[in-house]
Amino acid sequence: MASKKSLKRTVYIGTFVHSLSLEAIEVVEHGIVGVDEKGIITFVEKDYTVAGLKEVVKSQHGWQEWETVMVGDGPSTTFLFPGFVDTHIHAPQLPNTGIFGKSTLLSWLHTYTFPLESSLASIPRASTIYNYAVASTLRHGTTTAAYYATTHVPATTLLASICHTRGQRAFIGRCNMNSHIHPAYYKDADAESALRDTRESIKAIEEMDAGEGLVMPILTPRFAPSCTAELLTGLGELQKSTGLRVQTHISENLPEVALVKQMFPEQSSYTEVYDTHGLLGPKTVLAHACHLSAEEVQLVKARGASVSHCPVSNSYLGSGFCPVRELLGAGIPVGLGTDVSGGWSCSVLNAAREAGGVSRLRTYAEKEARYGAEPGKGEMEKENMKLSVEECLYLATRGGAKCLGLEQTVGAFEVGMEWDAQLVDLGAEIGEDGRSGARGGVALWGGEGWEARVAKWVYCGDERNTRRVWVRGREVGEEKE
C-alpha cells in the first residue's frame, strides 16, 4: 500500500531515460532530479559531479534539506524511466487473462467476459479481483490506468477506492450497456437507470478522491452496440454538462462494424454514431480503431479524439491491424492499451513490444493486399509502417498521457511534471563462467550501449526488471529485491 505520510524534498541521482519526442529517447547518465513535497519535479540537472551536488542543490535551487535516492550512476544497468500509461484495461477481467478458446470478439464476450463481469455484483469477489488488478499493474510499472469496471456502482466505487489507497493514478468508468445484445443477467435495465447509476458512480468517485485529482471518473459507454440511441444521447449530454473524459471501443473487428451498421442505420459510420450523440471530442479515447475508413480517420482528427492501440488483443482475438502510422501521420494522439483480458498481459511493456512486432507483420500483410507479390512494389510504404523501439516507448508514456489529457503532468522527466517513475534494473552482465546475474529475461553480455540496453528491456524484459514505482512522488507497490 502507498504510505500517506507527508512527502519530503527528494533528490534522485543516477541514470534517467525518457522520450523527448516520438522519434527520440534521451539518456542522461549523470543526472539529478529534484522532486518537491507535492511530488512535482522542481529541477533537472545533467552531467553533475558528486562533489558539486550540494552546491547545485543549495546554491542554484535554494534547498537546505532533502533526502537523496541513488539509483545507479554512470555506465550502470539500472535506470529510471517514466511510469507507463495504460489507456485501455478492463479491471474485472483479470481472472480470464489468457483464456480465448477459438473465439473472436462477440462470441468471446458472451462466452467468457459477461459471465465473469456479472460476478462482481459480489463485493468480496470484486475486492479480490480489483486488489489483484491494481497491485499487478503497479508491479508492471503502470502508474496511470484508464479502467473499465462493470455495471455495478458499489464495485466500481470499490475499484476507485483501491486505486486511491494503493496510490495509482486512475480513470474509473462504470460500464453503460442496456441494448438487446447483452444477456438479461448482465445489463442495465434501461437508459434512465443506466444514467442514474452513472451519475451516482461519478459522485461517489469524486467524493472519494476529495479533490486530489488522483482518481477520476470517466464516462464509459461500453461500445456503441451496447447502448441504445437514448442512452448514447444521455451520455453525450452528461459529458457536455460535466466535462468528463469518455472511453469506449471502436471498429475492433468487422462483425462488430457490421452490427453497428445494422443497429444505427441513420449514421453512415461507426465514428459518426459517437459524433451524432455528442461522444466524440478532444476528451474521447477510442480503443482499437482497426477498421476505420479514411473519412472516419478525418472525423476523429477533426474532433480531436485519440486512439488507444491494443496490439495484443487485436492479435489474439484475430480482430485486425490498427493503422498506427497513418493515425500518427494524421495528427491523432495514440497511446497503448493492454486491453486485459482480450490482451493476455497487464504489462504495458509487453504491449510496447507487441506494437513493434505487429507493425512489422502489418508491413507484409498490407504490401500483399496492395501490390501482391510483385518485387520492389511498396517497399517505402512497408518500411514506414514499422514502429521503432523509441516510438513504442513514446506511445507507452507520453503518447498515452496525451490521450488522457495528462501530457503536461506525466510521461517524462521535465520541470513542472509530477514524479511518476519506475526504477528499472537489467541485472548484472553474464560472467565468464556463463552464470547469469540477469533480472527477468534480459541478458547483458558486456559492451552494450544504452540503445541496445533499452531495446533488450523492451523485447526481453518483464515485471522482474521493475524494482520500484512512484506516483506523484510517493512510492507505491512493494520494492523488489
- How helix-rich are the residues, as a percent range? 25-40%
End-to-end Cα distance: 17 Å
Quaternary state reads: single chain
Low-confidence stretches: none
- Biggest β-sheet: count, sense, barrel? 4 strands, mixed
Q: Number of DSSP strands?
A: 18
Shape: globular
- Mean pLDDT comes to 94
Strand order of the largest sheet: 3-2-1-4
Task: Please tally the helical runs, counting DSSP H or I stretches of 4 or more residues.
Answer: 15
Rg from Cα:
23 Å
Strand coverage percent: 15-25%
Structural class: alpha/beta
How would you sum up this structure, described in words?
This protein has 481 residues and is an alpha/beta fold. It has 15 helices and 18 strands. The protein has a four-stranded mixed beta sheet. The longest helix is centred in the last third of the chain and has 24 residues. Helix 5 packs parallel to helix 6, helix 8 packs parallel to helix 9 and helix 12 runs antiparallel to helix 13.
